[in-house]
Amino acid sequence: MEEPEAMSLKSFLKWATELGISDSPSTSTTQSDSCLGHSLFVFNFPEAGGRGLEAARDIWKGELILRVPERALMTSQSLMMNDEAFSIAVKKHPSLSSAQILAVALLNEVNKGKSSRWWPYLKQFPRSYVTLADFGKFEIQALQIDDAIWAAQKASRKAEEEWNEATVLMHELKLKPQLLALKAWLWASGSISSRTMHIPWDEAGCLCPVGDFFNYAAPGEETSISEDRVAGKAFSLQEDSPLKSETELAAAHRLIDAGYEEDVSSYCFYARRNYRKGEQVLLSYGTYTNLELLQHYGFLLTENPNDKAFIPLESDMYSMCSWESELLYIQSDGKPSFALLSAVRLWAVPQNNRRSSVHLVYSGNRLSMENEVVAMRWLAKKCKTILDILPTTAEDDGKLLAILDEFQDIHQFMETKEIPPQLASELCAFLKSKNVVSEGICAMSSVARRSIERWKLAILWRYLYKKILCNCIVHCTEVITDFISQRDSVQGNLH
Ligand SMILES: C[S@@+](CC[C@H](N)C(=O)[O-])C[C@H]1O[C@@H](n2cnc3c(N)ncnc32)[C@H](O)[C@@H]1O
């Protein structure tokens, strides 16, 4: 960590200590300069979320590892309480949503600079975000898949509309010109989208100092090497387990490992699994597909058990079945979801027999060998058709990511003749749109550098989408091959 950054972190942790934030189970006030050190340390994890929290000691599943008292939570309400002018101004705009109010409140605090009570905390926020709303035209097109392109266009349109609606209030508050700009709004709404936590009294949630340093792991990934320590034993049955209160036990069983607790008026964080000293301690913000992670948090996971690939179906498939369209998807392992499988099975039944097959299909049964083969062939062919019409293959995307990684390392592109033509044209379009090459010299502005980050995310997203479709083709082919060999062996036995 660079010196000014380290100093700013140090003063932030001191500020947090004074507000009663603590990673120690003891509620007595400490003389320490840092609220961390008992259970957690701040550490940089370049491959897994950047700045995050590491275990300062071996931690047991279910242990309380961080407490953030209510007075340290930044909410619209707490910001209004300390700023009468802001509170009066907001009341004149009842149509603004709670997220818009929190965004304006955040910009209003930034406007105060060092005189804001929250200044040490605000200095810890990232300077910009790479969520879908921040994607420009080029990066949006790089997603390649219509659904993702629409989601990104919708996110950036929504951000712009919300900014427009809030500008009158921001002018009334006399914010500095740079804080009135869309760029500042994107920063505020990106902060809210990627850093707030749920509280029961405000839909916009709260900003939770130190608690928002936890990076994400998808729910369902709770096991680790350290889990071996308790292999075969339920953690709650261990006599020497440090789990004490009922709250801690209850928390260990929950999906969400953090929440606001009325009885202690604090946001409490519990370890979702055992951690060895030095491991990164992670939090599950919820169950998200990669597109949702990109939309709300600006990152995605190469191994995401909750990822889904949606494909366009025949129009009568939607009308014929009673499933909501968001249930019709291909899972990350390439298998169709239960609803998609039943929809395709039903569609593969001749139209005049469908009515009598509905019950069987919805109970998850295969109808017949022929029906299964028709359904699997349709699904495999659909995936192949989608993949064939896309401008690049998954393999190309992998190559392009490697080229961009290399470029970011050595600031030079490999010889263009070594780059496959479809990638070279995307690369040229990028260089042109960001004015990267001028008179044969490659000069990257900070804008172009940030754009590369978003472009890489778009490429990675479409690469992972294509991988799911490729896995689906493999799965369908295996099912068909199995059926054919079963049928051949039955026929062989009959002869
Ligand atoms: C609540 S903050 C977590 C702390 C953050 N790393 C920081 O420095 O403030 C959420 C942000 O952290 C990053 N992040 C969290 N988990 C991640 C992961 N598993 N992989 C990549 N980035 C992650 C994303 O930028 C996300 O928007």
Q: What order do the helices and strands come in, and which of them pair?
A:
Elements: H1 3-18, E1 40-45, E2 50-55, E3 64-69, H2 76-81, H3 84-91, H4 98-112, H5 119-122, H6 137-141, H7 146-172, H8 177-180, H9 182-195, E4 196-199, E5 202-207, E6 215-216, H10 246-253, E7 258-261, E8 266-270, E9 280-283, H11 290-297, E10 308-309, H12 315-320, E11 330-331, H13 338-347, H14 354-362, H15 369-389, H16 394-410, H17 421-433, E12 437-438, E13 441-442, H18 446-494
Parallel strand pairs: 6-9
Antiparallel strand pairs: 1-2, 2-9, 3-8, 4-5, 7-8, 10-11, 12-13
What ligand species are in this complex? S-adenosylmethionine
> Structural class, from secondary structure content?
alpha+beta
| DSSP, total strands | 13
Global geometry:
globular
Largest sheet: 4 strands, mixed
In terms of DSSP E residues, the strand content is 5-15%
Spans of at least 5 consecutive residues with low confidence = 224-244, 246-255
- Radius of gyration, in Å, reads 26 Å
Through-space gap between termini: 76 Å
Q: Report the mean per-residue pLDDT as an integer.
A: 88
Q: What's the total helix number? A: 18
Helix content: 40-55%
The order of strands across the largest sheet is 1-2-9-6
GO molecular function, one term: protein-lysine N-methyltransferase activity
Pfam families: Rubis-subs-bind (PF09273), SET (PF00856)
Protein name: SET domain-containing protein
InterPro entries: Rubisco_LSMT_subst-bd (IPR015353), Rubisco_LSMT_subst-bd_sf (IPR036464), SET_dom (IPR001214), SET_dom_sf (IPR046341), SETD3_SETD6_MTase (IPR050600)
